[in-house]
Every structure is written in structure tokens, then in C-alpha cells.
Specification:
alpha/beta, inorganic pyrophosphatase (n-terminal core), Diaminopimelate Epimerase, Chain A, domain 1, 2 domains, 12 helices, 41% helix, binds guanosine-5'-monophosphate, binds manganese (II) ion
């Protein structure tokens, strides 16, 4: 189906819908939660019942977002969540390409009977066929950018107000590191410019997202750079690793390590970086790259994950030492196979 036909179908689905559920990926980031809240607020303005259901909690630096307090968080209020999904007639999958990205919510979600049409809006490569209509575009900076485009094309953009523009702006800036990476297409700046027309408080948003951390987080960042970063010059790579003990010492809160994985990429000639964070039952891994090093292929091949070319994540079920060993060996193998 071509894009125009899909937009027409979407308009029909929305017109018919009364109860709309919007679901971002597990541990939603600014893009996933920003696009979800924007859609919710749009639908609310068209007098529909809409709700955002997040598969998990998310960091505090996103809690200031408009309408954040009405997001339902799985598994809290599980019965309410089940009822809302049961009676929904339209469900949006936001910023993910596979139901696996719902993590612990996936099983419950799939067991809930509903007749809802499913709409996917996402920018990750290789989307699975999980929706009746898929808007999947890897060329955009973010799902929030794509959401803006879809709002324009369905003519729902007439409902955009300051709050909705703030949600979409947050999504775009968080997925591009303040329009740093993944944002060379003029469309991204055009849309940012249109969002600024809604009188959003750009400085407030940037302060809320980037200049709102605890002293502990800043000290943890310093500790990581000074003591916990290893540079693998031969492989133009570097990584950071943190144990639960260290996280406890720095009173770690969700979101405190946000962005740490990018730091080694500021070193000359480093084009691949990783962070390994010990959790109670696995090691959370994040990867970032510059240029054509496929972080997503690496994450999928060795760390049960995936993502974008330059930003990916995954999990490892070995202990931290073994995870690091596996990382180094994987890098050697990956280079031998791909970069000779
Ligand atoms: P982060 O490192 O910020 O957790 O994730 C970076 C990117 O990788 C995100 O775009 C996210 O969608 C993707 N990602 C993170 N963790 C996973 C994972 O476990 N599986 C898959 N398929 N993608 C992931
Ligand atoms: Mn995204």
C-alpha cells in the first residue's frame, strides 16, 4: 500500500474510533513518550478517549512533559490497563518495530482480547508485521518527526497547540542529541521550525531534559570517565562499565546514565562506544557509533538486541567481567569479518 492510501486508511480508522490506546516501547525515551503524548493530546482534542500505556517506568527528566501524570504505567493498575485495551478500537505502537520491545508487558498484552486496529509509527529498521497499518521510515530523525508528518498529512495538525508541540520537540531533540546526530535532513529542521511557531519554551525544555540532573549523576559521570572507561585504540572503540555496587554508591536513579555511552565518541578516532551496566539479572548494554559502523548489527549478533545504525542496545546474561570479555572478543571477530 502506498503512503497516500495508508494515510486515507488511517483517517478512516481514526474517524471510526472512540477508544484509542497508545503504547511506546519499554523504558520509553523522550522520543517514544513525546510522540505518544502528542498523539494522545491530539485525539483528546477531537473528543476521543485516548490513553498512553507505558510498558514500564521512565526517567524523571521526562516527567515534566504535558499530560505525563495521566500515563498509565504497567504493571501498576494492571486491571485498568487490561480493561482499556479490551475496549479499545485503535492501538498505536510508537517507536518500536517488534512486540518484543514491550518486554515484560508483551505476554499480558498479547493475552488481552480486543478488536482494535493496530497502527505502527516507528523509525527503526526491519519492522515486523505487527500492525494493520505501518508507518515505518528509517530516514526520519525520530518517531516524533514522523508523527508530525502524519499529523500534517491527516490534517490533524490543525489541533497542534503549545503542549503538543513541546512533546514533539522533546522527541526530536532527545533522539538527535540536540540536533547533533541523525538530523542532516532539512525536513527535520523544517519541522523543528514549525514547532517553534507554537511558542514553545525551547530553553525550558532543554533545561528540563539536559540541565536537571543531581549532583550524584555528575559525580558518577566524572568517575566513569576517570576510572571506568577503557579505550581500545586498535579498534577505534571505547567502553564504560558500572557495577551495582558503584551505582548504589552514587545513589543511581533511572536515567542517571543517560548519554554516558556517547561520551567516548568525543575522543579523536573513536567511532564505536559501549556501556555495560549491571542490573540484578542481566547486564544492560548500549552501543553508539559514528559513520558506517553498524551498532545495531553488532548488538543483534552478540547482545540479544538491536536498534539503529548508530544507536543500539541489548542485554547480556553473563556476569560483568564475562560480558566485557565477550565484548572484546566480539569486536575482534566483527572487525575480522567486516572491516578487512
Ligand atoms: P539505548 O542504548 O538508549 O537503550 O537504546 C538505543 C537504541 O537501541 C534505541 O533506539 C532502542 O530502540 C534500541 N534498543 C535498546 N535496547 C534494545 C533491545 O534490547 N533490543 C532492541 N531490538 N533494540 C534495543
Ligand atoms: Mn526513537
Amino acid at each position: 500500500m502506498d503512503y497516500k492510501t495508508k494515510i486515507q486508511e488511517l483517517k478512516t480508522y481514526i474517524k471510526k474510533a472512540t477508544n484509542i490506546v497508545i503504547i511506546p516501547h519499554h523504558n520509553p525515551d523522550g522520543d517514544a513518550i513525546g510522540a505518544s503524548l502528542a498523539l494522545k493530546l491530539i485525539f483528546q482534542k477531537t473528543n476521543k478517549k485516548a490513553v498512553v500505556i507505558s510498558p514500564s517506568k521512565y526517567p524523571e527528566f521526562l516527567h515534566w512533559l504535558p499530560d505525563n501524570d495521566n500515563v498509565l504505567i504497567y504493571p501498576y493498575k494492571k486491571n485498568t490497563i487490561i480493561k482499556l485495551i479490551e475496549k479499545s478500537d485503535l492501538i498505536f505502537y510508537i517507536d518500536f518495530n517488534s512486540l518484543k520491545r514491550l518486554e515484560s508487558f508483551e505476554k499480558d498484552f498479547l493475552s488481552i482480547n480486543n478488536n482494535a486496529k493496530k497502527i505502527l509509527i516507528d523509525h527503526h529498521p526491519n519492522p515486523q508485521k505487527i500492525a494493520d497499518l505501518s508507518f515505518s521510515d528509517t530516514s526520519v530523525s525520530s518517531t516524533s518527526e514522523l508523527t508530525y508528518k502524519i499529523l500534517e498529512d491527516t490534517e490533524l495538525n490543525t489541533y497542534i497547540n503549545t503542549n503538543i508541540a513541546e512533546c514533539l520537540f522533546t522527541g526530536i531533540i532527545t533522539d538527535t542529541g540536540l540536533l547533533n546526530y541523525n538530523s542532516s535532513n532539512p525536513q527535520t529542521f523544517n519541522i523543528v521550525s514549525k514547532l517553534l511557531e507554537f511558542n514553545i519554551d525551547k530553553q525550558k525544555i532543554i533545561d528540563n531534559v539536559y540541565n536537571n540532573f543531581s549532583e550524584n549523576r555528575m559525580r558518577l559521570m566524572g568517575y566513569c570517565l576517570n576510572n571506568k572507561m577503557q579505550v581500545l585504540t586498535k579498534y577505534n572503540s571505547a567502553f564504560i562499565y558500572l557495577t551495582i555496587e558503584e551505582l548504589t554508591k552514587y545513589k543511581f536513579k533511572s536515567g542517571d546514565a543517560e548519554g554516558f555511552v556517547n561520551l567516548p565518541l568525543s575522543i579523536k578516532n573513536i567511532n564505536f562506544s559501549a556501556i555495560f551496566i549491571e542490573k540484578t539479572d542481566y547486564i544492560k548494554t548500549s552501543f553508539r557509533s559514528k559513520g558506517n559502523f553498524p551498532a545495531n548489527v553488532f548488538a543483534k549478533k552478540y547482545f540479544n538486541g538491536g536498534g539503529h545504525l548508530n544507536a543500539a542496545g541489548g542485554k547480556c546474561f553473563l556476569n560483568l567481567d564475562e560480558t566485557i570479555k565477550k565484548f572484546k572478543n566480539s569486536l575482534i571477530e566483527f572487525y575480522a569479518n567486516n572491516f578487512k
